[in-house]
Amino acid sequence: MDESPDETRAPVPGLPEPVPSRGSSGEDTLELVLDFDESGLPVPVAAPDASSRPADDGQDAPAGGEDAPDRDVVALRGEDAPDSEGAARRGEGAPSRGEDSRRREDAPRRRRRDRASHRAPDAPIEVDVVVIGAGQAGLSSAHHLRANGFTAVGERGWEGADRTFVVLDDSPAPGGAWQHRWPGLTMADAHGVHELPGMPFLVADPAEPAARAVPYYFAQYEDAFDLHVQRPVRVSRVSDEAGLLRVESHSVDRPDDGVVFRARGLVNASGTWSKPFWPVYPGQAAFRGRQLHTHDYRTPQELADGHVVVVGGGTSAVQLLLALAPVTTTTWVTRRPPQWRDEAFTPEVGRAAVALVEERTRAGLPPQSIVSVTGLPLTPAYRAGIEEGVLQARPMFSRITATGVEWSAPAAADGWVDGPASVEAATILWCTGFRAALDHLAPLRLRGSGGGIAMDGTAVVADPRIQLVGYGPSASTIGANRAGREAARNLVAVLAR
Ligand SMILES: Cc1cc2nc3c(=O)[nH]c(=O)nc-3n(C[C@H](O)[C@H](O)[C@H](O)COP(=O)(O)OP(=O)(O)OC[C@H]3O[C@@H](n4cnc5c(N)ncnc54)[C@H](O)[C@@H]3O)c2cc1C
Ligand SMILES: NC(=O)c1ccc[n+]([C@@H]2O[C@H](COP(=O)([O-])OP(=O)(O)OC[C@H]3O[C@@H](n4cnc5c(N)ncnc54)[C@H](OP(=O)(O)O)[C@@H]3O)[C@@H](O)[C@H]2O)c1
How confident is the model over 148-162, as pLDDT tens digits? Predict the structure, then answer.
């Protein structure tokens, strides 16, 4: 791996030193930008540079469609590189990003940022847009901000750039929540991970764990588009400060070293993974066995020492029940009979599900469980699980005891099965979903009387400086892509006011 200093990067005062993100595997990599010649063969050229991309990537898909780049960045592992790799290495022959930024600068803002670069150690860093989170939603947003002419903080010369953004991410490495998924969740098991705008996601081996394949792709993406993600940096608090957004952050490794950003707009893309939802049931504290949430599940073998009660009617519950079946016995409990769906999850079905969630968030209501709008598709594996009895659910238990769970009434609805009045268990596995990780936004008081945040697309109705992506209707990889584009456009309009 090339360890020479990266001249496109500039340290940001107070934040961790930038680490080149060459893929989670640590293997040497390179990126190629491919144009295609008339015969359809790929022609390697220099990798993307802010100056070579249009001010607004007009190649964005038409409404309802997807990003359809006419130029693709392809991430290759070292050994796959063609002979022309040297010429195609990122940055070679391309104008320096610093020079490019300065070409676009505007004098008053440059003076403001020049002052900022000579700021006192504790003074806020001025930036136009802060993006919180570098999962699918944050990376898509950063891509579209770049496409709209924004320069990344940390890129050489950023202090003089006309418009700037910074991406802050508290995970240890690229990959968003995907890096934390259980090892048995392979690319074949995933529902489909949509590629980020402008770079195909080539899955060579469907048996590869998603926790490896997706982070590898994200790492390539961050490098290819020079997104300069600052990590591991956690945003602890966002508040209003005289019309600007005060974003308080700190290095995860050095919690006492805070860095404050002052921004004109915010893209919140912090996902849900860090906020697993644990319901409370009578007797829960007395249970002497193990309790864990989807968030903490790793392998079936870890739970093979006894019976497992799995709570929840979503995909997590169903997939973990099937994973556990070869190593132990299970009881499945749900608070509504499982919502099996016998039709394919077509784009129309997907749009209908998104519309349902959108209706709620527009009305200021919190999003409900994902499965309540998607249902559970009756795949061959799920059909087999139902036939074998693994995917036959009982209603919620009435209470938890020291050694298991108890029911005081029989199953009272179609779709549930009956069973003994009590079950002994070594483990209760709570597959009860996630909530949006928005605690850091609490000082902005965005929640309304409906308990949720009233949204107009990605914009918070009460404060359009704040864009929520990967939230509600955009809580999927395809939705996050589209939301990133919308958020960037909205913020361009907000900043122009
Ligand atoms: C088990 C599981 C499997 C799934 N499979 C699929 C699938 O196959 N297809 C699909 O479309 N969707 C799937 N989803 C939904 C999926 O999570 C989303 O579609 C998408 O990946 C979420 O992207 P995101 O960018 O919104 O969030 P994340 O990927 O969670 O990224 C959020 C990022 O923000 C960071 N962050 C959080 N809080 C802070 C903070 N305060 N400061 C700084 N950084 C912060 C996190 O570290 C993280 O890197 C799945 C969800 C789960 C739980
Ligand atoms: N292979 C894959 O690609 C894969 C694997 C796992 C998960 N996922 C994805 O991950 C996301 C989250 O899925 P998920 O299954 O974790 O969550 P989910 O779809 O939100 O489902 C949560 C479940 O918990 C139930 N629940 C909530 N509160 C409860 C309570 N107090 N008592 C009992 N049950 C309660 C919900 O019931 P109600 O519906 O009644 O609220 C629902 O059945 C989804 O996007 C899903 O598709 C994908």
Answer: 999 999 998 999 999
**Residues 6 or more apart from 119 whose CB is under 8 A from it?**
13, 125
Determine contact, residues 129/141, Cβ cutoff 8 Å. Answer: no
Shortest-distance Cα residue to atom 24 of ligand 2:
432
CA of 119 to the centre of ligand 1 (A): 35
pLDDT surpasses 80 at 109: no
Mutate to test the pocket of ligand 1, among 322, 476, 482 (most ligand atoms within 8 A of CB): 476
Nearest alpha carbon, ligand 2 atom 47: 315
Which atom of ligand 1 is closest in space to residue 190's alpha carbon? 8
In terms of Cβ atoms closer than 10 Å to its own Cβ (0-12, 13-18, 19+), residue 356 is middle
The pLDDT score that the predictor gives to residue 9 is 65
pLDDT of residue 11: 67
Strands across the sheet with 404-406, in order? Answer: 399-400, 404-406, 422-424
Q: 136: CA distance to ligand 1 center in Å?
A: 7
Quote the pTM value: 0.83
Q: Note the pLDDT of residue 8.
A: 60
* pLDDT given at position 62: 26
pLDDT at 457 over 70: yes
Q: Which domains are assigned to the chain?
A: 119-274+437-496 (3.50.50.60), 284-339+375-430 (3.50.50.60)
pLDDT for residue 2: 38
Q: CA–CA separation, 353 vs 281, rounded Å?
A: 30
Q: Which residue has the higher pLDDT, 354 or 120?
A: 354
Q: What mean pLDDT do residues 45-59 have?
A: 31
- Is 60 exceeded by the pLDDT of residue 19? no
Q: Are 324 and 300 in contact (CB under 8 A)?
A: yes
Q: Which residues have C-beta atoms less than 6 Å from ligand 2?
A: 185, 189-191, 279, 294, 311-317, 319, 334-336, 368-372, 396, 431-433
CA neighbours within 13 Å on the CB side: how many for 302? Answer: 13
Q: How far is the CA of 328 from the centre of ligand 1 (A)?
A: 30
Whose Cα sits closest to atom 38 in ligand 2? Answer: 369
| Ligand 2 atom at minimum distance from 372 CA | 39
Once rounded to an integer, what is the mean pLDDT over residues 163-179? 98
Distance 134 CA to ligand 1 centre (A): 9
